[in-house]
TrEMBL record:
NCBIfam families: prismane_assoc. PANTHER family: BSL7085 PROTEIN, DUF1858 DOMAIN-CONTAINING PROTEIN. This is DUF1858 domain-containing protein. Gene3D superfamilies: SP0561-like. The lineage of its organism: Bacteria, Bacillati, Bacillota, Clostridia, Eubacteriales. Pfam families: DUF1858. Residues 2-54 form the DUF1858 domain.
Amino acid sequence: MITKDMGIIEIVNKYPVTADVFFKYGMHCLGCMAARFETLEQGALAHGIDLEAMLKDLNDAIKK
């Protein structure tokens, strides 16, 4: 299960299918420096993204 405290790159490395969800939410910077150090919560706040909706979509993606 993906949580808000997990690192963005940690999530994508562990669950590559989630890259599409990040792109859907406008987070195209998966290779940028910030993504290497930010948690999902920090990234969502920085991009003005609804964290709970994104978490749901990320966890739905890994269940498929």
